[in-house]
Write a structure and sequence with these properties.
264 residues; seven-stranded parallel sheet
């Protein structure tokens, strides 16, 4: 084991945990060379089980032989930086969840066709920029039988540290990739259902939706909702019935309700 006791906050090799921004970690032009941070032993285990490659570990001293002992055994000869809780909080700028961070290598994004090959229920996330919502949507997608997640390029990165943590590692369990437009899903045999409050919106429990063999649900932002073009070009416009005059749900809550209702 390559355990390195942190002696300085400026120690070489710690940049990935301290000074690099999310954008710098992504390396958008060459994503296969980029990194992301997985936080907490449970999330790190899910990532390792799913085949993601670790490059460095940051761990509270007590967890080396405690909560993270099995992870330390699994990661081989990568650097394992360690120190006390206070020192690591100074380094990262926040208190570590369960005292462990793991830097991992990104993968090349799969083609849309590969992600959709055997899918019957997918969700398209359009222009959702809140990392907590993205993480929660992925967690619901994994739990409630969604086969794939597609994200437009104006949506935030699912491998953002907070999104990964909120998803509890579900971003490693559901196939996902980026997409230019939900319209292209018709080319793969999908009907599309835009979640939007319109005069002609049908109810989520409309039997036509569940009868569709391949259905893509399109979720948008809470404030502006989906663009009019997306709504116009969708096969269905769908709303969740509400009570007590409530007009809508948080997008993550709406996604969970929708996934449950449309499961096959």
């Amino acid at each position: 084991m390559n355990i390195i006791e942190i002696s300085s906050l400026q120690q070489e090799g710690l940049e990935v945990f301290s000074t690099l921004t999310e954008a710098q970690l992504r390396m958008e032009l060459e994503p296969e060379k980029g990194l992301f941070i997985a936080e907490s032993p449970k999330v790190i285990r899910v990532a390792l089980d799913a085949g993601w490659e670790p490059t460095a570990l940051l761990c509270e001293s007590k967890h080396i032989t405690g909560d993270a002992a099995d992870i330390v055994e699994r990661v081989g000869e990568i650097p394992i930086y360690t120190g006390n809780r206070e020192l690591l909080a100074q380094l990262t700028g926040y208190t570590l969840t369960r005292g462990v961070l793991c830097a991992m290598r990104r993968k090349t994004f799969p083609a849309v066709a590969d992600v959709l090959k055997n899918a019957r229920r997918v969700v398209v996330i359009e222009a959702v920029t809140d990392t907590t919502n993205i993480g929660a949507i992925f967690r619901s997608a994994a739990a409630l039988g969604i086969d794939a997640v597609l994200l437009t390029h104006n949506t935030c990165d699912p491998l953002n540290r907070r999104a990964v943590r909120v998803s509890m590692g579900s971003v490693f369990l559901v196939p996902w990739t980026w997409i230019d437009s939900a319209v292209t899903l018709h080319d793969y045999g999908f009907k599309t259902a835009a979640m939007a409050l319109c005069d002609d919106s049908i109810s989520l429990d409309d039997p036509r939706l569940k009868a569709e063999q391949r259905l893509a649900v399109i979720m948008g932002t809470e404030g502006d909702g989906l663009p009019q073009r997306t709504i116009t070009e969708a096969d269905y416009t769908v709303k969740i019935p509400m009570a007590h005059g409530v007009d809508s749900l948080n997008v993550a809550a709406a996604a969970a309700v929708t996934f449950w209702e449309l499961r096959r």
